[in-house]
Amino acid sequence: EVSYAGHTYFKSAKGMIAYFPPGFPPGQPCFMADSRTLVFPGSEQKLREFWDEGMEWKPLCESRPGWSRIQNGFLSVSIDNRGNPCGRWIKDKEELVPLGPVFQHATEILFSMEASDKFVVRVITTSETEESAKIVAEQASALLTVARNALDAQMVEPAANKLFDTYRRFAQELLENARVERDGTEVRVQAESTVELPDLAEAFLGLGL
């Protein structure tokens, strides 16, 4: 915990880095803009400069294209990917390399999870050009196909227990219902599942996911 000019922020510890967004090595700052908003500015210098200039962080989030469509999720994330920090983060992570074309061609990524009568996952990306957005949409569709095929191979074997069965049913419904749409420079991915949030939480916690 660090105090600066009447503000308080936090610096990521080495052991916690797996829970932080792409491109954040140990020691990078974050702070709570309000009771629901956690902000990762990218560097301590940038954070202090914004406060020195009297700027507010929350309006930056709210001004993002598409933010109004995800802001009511129980988890909503906005990533400024200009300069491709996400791509740099995954370059040494073999299992995430297929996301490279998405990060390379998306300047902004919005992500949310919602839970009411259905569990809904939304991803909205913005690109600089329509051609870049087309590449994002094609790669997203390809990744969904790979994920569906991988899950189909898993479904051949019976579930080891009820928790694993809940997890597989959730994943299967999400992938079956996932749709990719492109509108100009924007790509939208939406997936839904009827698995209830308490059951899903129990499965994830019980399986250590």
Tell me about this structure:
By secondary structure, the chain is an alpha+beta fold. The chain contains seven helices and nine strands; from the N terminus they run E-E-E-E-H-H-E-H-H-E-E-H-H-E-E-H. The strands form two sheets. Strands 5-6-7-9-8 form a five-stranded antiparallel sheet, with helices on one face. A four-stranded antiparallel sheet has the order 1-2-3-4, with helices on one face. Helix 5 (130-155) packs antiparallel against helix 6 (162-177). The longest helix has 26 residues, at 130-155. It starts with a strand and ends with a helix. The relative contact order is 0.10.
Characteristics:
single chain; 209 residues; alpha+beta; five-stranded antiparallel beta sheet; four-stranded antiparallel beta sheet; globular
Give a nutshell description of this structure.
The chain has helices at 44-52, 58-62, 85-90, 100-105, 130-155, 162-177, 197-207, and strands spanning 2-4, 7-11, 29-34, 37-39, 75-80, 108-115, 119-126, 179-183, 186-193. It is of the alpha+beta class and 209 residues long. Strand 3 and strand 4 form a beta hairpin.
